[in-house]
Write a structure and sequence with these properties.
The chain has one helix and six strands; from the N terminus they run ββαββββ. It is mainly β. The protein has one domain (about 1-75). The strands form two sheets. A three-stranded antiparallel β-sheet has the order 4-1-6, with no helix packed on it. It has a three-stranded antiparallel β-sheet with strand order 3-2-5.
Length: about 80
Amino acid sequence: MLKFSFETTSAGDNLALCAGSGTDFDAGLCPIRLNDSGGPGFQFLNVIDASDFDGKILYNLREVGANPASFNFTIN
């Protein structure tokens, strides 16, 4: 099992934490949505079977905002 938390730290931005292929990322797709950020101050905890990530990459997609975004991603 893999336990991690995700939080957007920049005001005015919401990010989606996704798992997929490089092609999915290039196309702006999120086949496995692990989390949505909800904006600064909202930290979300996930627990997932690590085997679900076999052959996948983790990436963020912007859902709201236009300025450069920042985030925290912590694996426990």
